[in-house]
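To the wet lab folks,

You asked to see what we're planning to order before we commit. Fair enough. Below is the target structure as tokens, and below that is the sequence we designed to fit it. If anything looks off to you, flag it before the synthesis order goes out.
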């Protein structure tokens, strides 16, 4: 299980067919003694950012369906620390969070694209030991 760490991608197996996680790839952004957090990276959300009332003033930008937890918030994953302050660096050149006003500015001015900024509705979360148990039972593989 020592392969589980921030920056690693996991893929669902057939064991999760019929669930939210069917055919998903998740980027883990946190894995420690308290548990794990990640975002589904291959599942689009049904709306774009500009279709949400509080963001109807910005240019169209895709939203990803990050997971079933905390679907009331938008989470930012990006590769542009030069444009977005207040982010936490995770492995693989990604940064988590940051100043949302700067994220919106980067989108509106097109200084960053969807390969450099990803926005997620919700996230995936596991308590301590849960993800390890799911990997052991065959629900997830490493990609």
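Sequence we intend to order:
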């Amino acid at each position: 299980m020592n392969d589980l760490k921030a920056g690693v991608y996991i893929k669902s197996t057939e064991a999760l067919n019929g669930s939210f996680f069917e055919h998903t790839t998740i980027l883990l952004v946190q894995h420690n003694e308290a548990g794990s957090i990640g975002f589904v990276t291959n599942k689009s959300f049904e709306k774009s950012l500009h279709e949400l009332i509080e963001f109807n003033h910005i240019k169209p930008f895709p939203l990803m369906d990050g997971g079933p937890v905390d679907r009331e918030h938008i989470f930012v994953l990006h590769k542009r620390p030069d444009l977005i302050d207040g982010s936490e660096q995770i492995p693989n050149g990604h940064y988590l969070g940051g100043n949302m006003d700067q994220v919106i500015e980067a989108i509106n001015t097109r200084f960053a694209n969807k390969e450099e900024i990803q926005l997620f509705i919700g996230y995936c979360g596991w308590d301590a030991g849960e993800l390890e148990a799911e990997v052991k039972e065959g629900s997830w593989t490493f990609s």
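Structural context that might help your review: Helices lie at 100-108, 130-136. The radius of gyration is 15 Å.

Thanks,
Computational group
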